[in-house]
Design brief:
By secondary structure, the chain is an alpha/beta fold. The protein has three domains: 234 residues, Glutamine Phosphoribosylpyrophosphate, subunit 1, domain 1 (4-Layer Sandwich), CATH 3.60.20.10; 183 residues, Glucose-6-phosphate isomerase like protein, domain 1 (Rossmann fold, 3-Layer(aba) Sandwich), CATH 3.40.50; 151 residues, 3-Layer(aba) Sandwich (Rossmann fold), CATH 3.40.50.10490. The chain contains 18 helices and 26 strands. The strands form five sheets. The chain has an eight-stranded antiparallel sheet, covered by helices on one side. α7 packs parallel to α13, α13 runs antiparallel to α14 and α14 packs parallel to α18. The longest helix has 22 residues. It is globular and about 75 Å long. The structure holds 5-amino-5-deoxy-1-O-phosphono-D-mannitol (M6R). The site of 5-amino-5-deoxy-1-O-phosphono-D-mannitol has 16 residues, from α9 and α16.
Length: 608
């Protein structure tokens, strides 16, 4: 949700930290700050607003500090103002801390510390933690951090410095990601590899309840109980150019256009057309349990939930396994029934979404086989699962999820055919399905040719404040996804519905010129959706149809038609979502919205 970066070494830390913060801004952008340590002096600078605002306040030439920590915030406790921005300091001004996560018992500690005479300068839960560390400090920062963390409840990824111990950063994690970057005579700490990738691709991921002490001389890792831990140093699989704009105006645009390549990477080594089967190494060890599954529960949030809904149709169609998709936030508190043979699959781009992580833990505790469909390698959800499949679609920086949706659907399609083949699908049906899947990247390239037309439509309709998105069967989740994309980045109210539901109420909304997007591709429900289009036309709505290439008849019914190539019905969401992503993108640009950093949102939601 927020972003942390820290540096200790021989180089000037400030430019590195600001560059890291800019790369982390997609995680939160209400306020930003740095704490620089030069000899025994701690200098904290922070401000509400974007990193660019902070940057203007800093003296880059004057700062010779080679140790520092920095933060970009998405506010949870306390308004996004200067005071509440991180880093926070203790009352003595010796200790500075940056924090991602939430301290749950902060009110009790605030009272306790106030009784001891501590005066609080902010409304944040984080200040309570740094004040507690300050109270426990007796000349050993590591010990003080350990003691304070033993007392608090909640989640944290933290980096702490102390002016009495220059050249040292103490970092710790519970429930909020943190990694240590290993360079030549320098170490970095970050909540996300993108912040440090320009300097090193060698990282050690901290696990929950672990702590690291870094200095120019080395890295020492322990548990929070001070038991030494040896960490593997891993190579980050993402490259620097993957996290840069590469000539695009926005990450969302870049990521929409990356989808064909992302699909190829996602399927590489998995779809085997020669043998007519799917290889899924990540779940090979539990293949037997999956094959014998009696029920599947897919759990996720937002876009990942929409992908899960496509998954429900896929697992029932291809796998013939009873499947449900559940909002993770509901599942975790609902006393769910987990019987023998239940497989729970958590779907998440970031692998850090708090509700999804909690739902997965709940499912595991109740005895389900817990699988993950995750993009970020080494993320919390990936670590919590019994087995899983990575998307391999590359980093997704734009807050609006695009290529991750397609990666999630593609992985679920591969899993469904993997299960289906083991249960009842014939070799020839499986082969036909996989051949169609393998054609998707090239067909996506054709769907992307709609961009100019999507722009024209978006420009024509961008000032309409209410839109409807309608689809049936496999296109119903796509309707939901199209509506979510539009609302989250352009702030237009949009609703996605199963097309047949329209007549049970929402039809009352339709007035002259209201944009109604139909996903009306050729398939089992084509005739039905055409009737729904007629109903909207009769009431003066502006019909925007996503249709199958070659369907000329639909031009008589729709004001605008965006064509996608023909594919099997279960795979159509991978193509039909593209025009909807493009419409949302162009509508947001037309309305002058900040596409990659929409208001009130951040990339991963690590709070409830
Ligand atoms: O990282 P996750 O896939 O778990 O994130 C889930 C949702 O927060 C996410 O898909 C959100 O809905 C996006 N902003 C949608 O574009």
């Amino acid at each position: 949700m927020c972003g942390i970066v820290g540096y200790v070494g021989e180089r000037r830390a400030l430019p590195l930290l600001i560059e890291g913060l800019k790369r982390l801004e997609y995680r939160g952008y209400d306020s930003a700050g740095v704490a620089m340590m030069e000899d025994h002096t701690l200098q904290v600078t922070k401000s509400a607003g974007r990193v660019a605002v902070l940057e203007q306040m800093l003296d880059f030439d004057g700062s010779k500090a080679t140790t520092g920590i920095a933060h970009t915030r998405w506010a949870t406790h306390g308004a996004p103002n200067d005071a509440n921005a991180h880093p926070h300091t203790d009352a003595s001004g010796r200790i500075a801390l940056v924090h991602n996560g939430i301290i749950e018992n902060y009110t009790a500690f605030k009272k306790y510390l106030e009784q001891k005479g501590v005066v609080f300068a902010t409304e944040t839960d984080t200040e309570v933690l740094v004040q507690l560390i300050g109270c426990r400090y007796k000349g050993n920062l590591e010990k003080a951090v350990r003691e304070a963390l033993a007392e608090i409840h909640g989640t944290f990824g933290i980096a702490v410095v102390c002016s009495e111990e220059p050249g040292i950063i103490v970092a710790a994690r519970r429930g909020s990601p943190l990694l240590i970057g290993v360079g030549q005579g320098e170490y970095l700490v970050a909540s996300d590899a993108s912040a440090i990738l320009a300097h090193t691709s060698q990282v050690a991921y901290l696990s929950d309840n672990e702590m690291a002490v870094i200095s120019a001389d080395g890295l020492r890792t322990t548990t929070l109980d001070n038991i030494p831990v040896t960490k593997d140093i891993q190579e980050v699989e993402w490259t620097l150019d993957q996290i840069e704009l590469a000539g695009h105006d926005h990450f969302m645009e870049k990521e929409i256009f990356e989808q064909p390549e992302a699909m190829r990477n996602c399927m590489r080594g998995r779809v085997d057309l020669g043998e007519g089967k799917v290889h899924l190494g990540g779940i090979a060890d539990v293949a037997r349990e999956i094959t014998r599954a009696k029920r599947i529960i897919l759990t996720a949030c937002g876009t990942a939930w929409h992908a899960g809904l496509v998954g429900e149709y896929l697992f029932e169609d291809l796998g013939r396994i009873p499947t449900e998709v559940e909002y993770a936030s509901e599942f975790r508190y609902r006393n769910p029934v987990i019987e023998d043979g239940t497989v729970v699959i958590a779907i998440s781009q970031s692998g850090e979404t708090a509700d999804t992580l909690a739902a997965l833990s709940e499912a595991r505790e109740r005895g389900a086989l817990a699988l993950g469909v995750v993009n970020v390698v080494g993320s919390s959800i990936a670590r919590e699962t019994d087995a899983g499949i990575y998307l391999h679609v590359g980093p997704e920086i734009g807050v609006a999820s695009t290529k991750a949706f397609c990666g999630q659907v593609a992985v679920l399609a591969m899993m469904a055919s993997y299960m289906g083949r083991r249960r009842h699908l014939s070799q020839s049906t499986t082969q036909e399905f996989l051949e169609a899947l393998a054609r998707i990247p090239e067909q996506m390239e054709q769907a992307l040719e709609n961009s100019d037309q999507a722009k024209t439509i978006a420009e024509a309709c961008a000032q309409r404040e209410n839109w409807l998105y309608l689809g049936r069967g496999y296109q119903y989740p796509v309707a939901l996804e199209g509506a979510l994309k539009l609302k989250e980045i352009s702030y237009i109210h949009a609703e996605g519905l199963p097309a047949a539901e329209m007549k049970h109420g929402p039809i009352a909304l339709i007035n002259d010129g209201m944009p109604v997007v139909f996903i009306a591709t050729q398939g089992s429900q084509y005739e039905k959706i055409i009737s729904n289009i007629e109903q909207v036309r009769a009431r003066g709505g502006r019909v925007i149809a996503v249709a199958t290439k070659g369907d000329h008849g639909i031009t008589k019914l729709a004001t605008d038609v965006l064509y996608v190539p023909h594919t099997l019905e279960p795979l159509q969401p991978l193509l039909t979502v593209i025009p909807l992503q493009l419409i949302a993108y162009h509508a947001a640009v037309t309305r002058g919205c900040n596409v990659d950093k929409p208001r009130n949102l951040a990339k991963s939601v690590t709070v409830e």
